[in-house]
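Handoff note, outgoing to incoming analyst
You'll be picking up this chain. Sequence as last confirmed:
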Amino acid sequence: MPSGREHTAIADKVELITYADRLGGDIRGLHDVLRGPLAGLFGGVHVLPFFQPYDGADAGFDPEDHAAVDKRLGTWEDVARLAEEFDLMVDVIVNHVSAGSKPFLDWLANGERSAYDGMFLTFAGVFPEGATEDMLMRLYRPRPGLPFTPYQLADGTRRLVWTTFTSRQIDVDVRHPVTHDYLVRVLDRLATARVRRVRLDAVGYAVKTPGQTSFMTPETFRFIDDVTAWCRERGLEVLVEVHSYYRQQIEIAKQVDRVYDFALPPLVLHALTAADADPLLAWMEIRPANAVTVLDTHDGIGVIDVGADATDRSRPGLLTPAQIDRLVEAIHDGSLGTSRRATGAAASNVDLYQVNCTIYDALGRDDDRYLLARAVQLLTPGVPQVYYVGLLAGSNDMQLLSHSNVGRDVNRHYYTRGEIEQELRRPVVRALLRLIRFRNFHPAFEGTCVVAGGGPRLTITWTHQEERVVLDAALDTAFATLTWTGERGPRTAALSRLP
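Most recent structure output, in case you need it:
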């Protein structure tokens, strides 16, 4: 199916996604890596949660103190120094706090006498008149079971507390004044540290409404509007993080500065494993222009983003159920089965939230296919972000998985400085770095983009005045070339041989 929609560029440089402790050891170490072996590669960096504690139940996404930097990683001064050199993005976890946080412990100790009473969602708080089986079955959750955990208060009272993710992540009532004050204090702290952009983590689950799915409802959209206004008052741009039906991403994009293009990774993988560009081309026709393009993040490869609407199966996805099943099996085959061990028994179900695997392993550690996948990502209109494991073409870390038994840890390797230097010498990594620099500096990317092709062929063309860049790819063989204008006229090279 041909595609010819013209896209206007957002001429930002490529950005990095990383943990502070897994690429340099701490915030200062990360800064040294960005100024040292990775110098000149990235215009911005998304540092995943570095709050107190950064190593809790969900790798920092369960803060006990969202306004404090974990002392083991550094200080707010270290954060501000990083923000002086790079456009810095930081997570705002709006849906929940840690069960070890001071507010929650105070509420457990004092109940209705606590200054934080009303901040935390309970079954009775959301369903004051009770809930029928039908109402509970409508609730949407990314994990099996109902989203409730029993907790006992100091007076012996037992309450069912809302826990969307893990039993240690306590959902907050985002409409309560105490929660509002808490979130605003977090935003003020980030603005003071010169953070440019915030990523609203798990915001799709933040508003609970009796009788609804409590995921991406009209009330959720109104809350996103509210948080976006709070952020803009403080000069903060907003990126929304939601794995959901693709049409919801299109709607969210109208409200905020940026959304993730989470449909891109599975569509690129489908294109390369099935030699079929058609679903990717169809998405290129309708995808939001203000997107952050990714192939990998700290989470797994989201299949829900290309599937049918989980709340209304009559609304088809970007891939059919058969195509999704084939894609999941292709990922497992490419990783020699390691992704299956990290993902679980329901891996080929269309309700799957994610497949846990590095992109390099998902493509069978094939350097040509990997570089082509990265070229498609980098040439897709939007702001490209490259995950630190993907930057180094990392493989599934089965040793870390065996230690933690957390599936997503296969894609969360801890790199020593020596490992970084070693990985940067690999030909595939060196070729990727050249591709990133090319994307950062060629003037054609300040212009417009046209995507065309069909079946096993894909062409992406960027044009700005007299400048031009063309990616021409054969998906069945992974043979691809870049043609571009230069000082001495047009040039063509294979992706692995860019100068």
